[in-house]
Amino acid sequence: MRVNEPFRVAAALLLVLAGGAAAEDPPAPPRTAEAPPPVPDEPAPEPAPALVPTPPGSPEDQALWKATLDIGNQLTAVRVEGARLHWKIRNEELHARLEALTRKEPDRAKEIEAVRSELLAAQVASYGDLQGRWPLDKTRACQYPNSLLGSTMIVAAERSVPGELGQVRDAASRCLDVGRATLARVSRSNAALAAAVEKAGQTVGPMAPNTGR
Fold first, then answer.
1. What is the distance between the alpha carbons of residues 213 and 210, in angstroms, rounded to a whole number?
2. Which of 52, 86, 151, 188 is deepest in the core (most CB within 10 A)?
3. In whole angstroms, what is the distance from residue 62 CA to residue 85 CA?
4. Does residue 185 contact residue 129 with C-beta atoms inside 8 Å?
């Protein structure tokens, strides 16, 4: 079977992306030119954080403290959603079913191939965003700047002096900006992948029930 050029290029890009994952990630298995990308690692659920009282300080500093605390949960949520979409593609065998539909309905082959190309392109982009290098720690996000900001706010309030609050505030703000930009980027690739998955699902229709054979 001839391999379409877009799938050959996409597969090569996937190999590069898989090679750039964190050192602790298992290596991606070898793939044929038309194989879909591997499923990204789903972040392990973290225990619910204990309720931490908001440290004393100005409303602006308290809002910054809360935002740097929340951004980590938001980033975890988009990683979980991205992994869920990749697992959906794998569990519903969308690539194999699209390929089979192309053979079954040759008159629609071009249309179906376009749907599969869109799905694969969205997978490549999403996999790169989920497994590639991030500008901040994927697990901790802004935990350190948040903790430092909170403790500095407490010290400043107790001693009635600003201390190093200005410098710590700037570091927390920078981390929050990076976190929000990362959140927006991954959310966009999730949305594109969700749309491609929806289109592929509509194209192939519901899966046949498992007969347990």
1. 8
2. 86
3. 35
4. yes
